[in-house]
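Supplementary notes for students who missed Thursday's class. We covered one full example, reproduced here. Read the sequence, then the structure, then the short commentary at the end.
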Amino acid sequence: MDPVLVKALLEPFGALRPQAATEWKGADPLPEAVATFYREVGPWGETHHENVGPVGCTLTVGGNPVRIPPLHKLERLQAGYAWSKDPLDRLQGWDDDWLVIAEQGGDPFILEKSTGAILFAFHGAGSWTPRVFARDLMTAIGSLATVAAAYLALDDTDFIDDEPTASAVAKIRDRLMAFVGDRERVETMLSAWDYLT
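Structure (token representation):
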């Protein structure tokens, strides 16, 4: 997936700036796909409070927003998934091959380092059983940004009791289809995310 396109899709959801791999604070090496994403797309966000710094990009998709941190905060995003209080004290049930790259209300979007695929899992299920969301990081982020843009383009007539109507769901699916280019992949993605299903 073209990083220039993904950058254009993500731009409405927070400031972007190139971030060098040296901004990664983790002990493990930064996967090349992640380094490329932050160097070429670079979710940075706005600084809401002097002591907090940039917050990354926030995508409104209905329900909880999807949050993508800046690179220097990506290691902290692993807390609660890979480890609790100390990165060296790994939590059971979390695969060392996984790196959380975004989250939605505690539900992680996970880079599977060995394959480059992006997985999605629900927290609180007793064990982690992620499902494949996208083939790669750029496609995943571009898809999430596409869904957010489609969601934000809806108007009051597209909702009944805060739920999107069938025509609103079709609008979001059609926009995602235009980005992904394959209906089967779109349905697999939405099913893994349990979004609009």
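Commentary. The first strand starts at residue 57 and ends at 59. The chain has two domains: 3-137, 142-193. If anything here is unclear, bring it to office hours.
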